[in-house]
Amino acid sequence: xxxxxxxxxxxxxxxxxxxxxxxxxxxxxxxxxxxxxxxxxxxxxxxxxxxxxxxxxxxxxxxxxxxxxxxxxxxxxxxxxxxxxxxx
Length: 88
Description:
Blueprint: H1 7-15, E1 32-41, H2 47-56, E2 65-66, E3 69-70, E4 73-84
Antiparallel strand pairs: 1-4, 2-3
């Protein structure tokens, strides 16, 4: 299992202006596409985010150490919605 990107990926992310971040539900339905500016959020995380993740993911604590150290969050400030998917 890959737990962190290699140097080549990190260098590319540092220079690229446009990247794609994808996540899907287990059944792969209803994709949503947005355009925006991403920023890294380091701890302390907003309490509402910590509580929301804990509730959503059965008690998971985002403030705990991850496999490669402390977790960070990726915040995307959406500038426009390009596609709002529909479940099949």
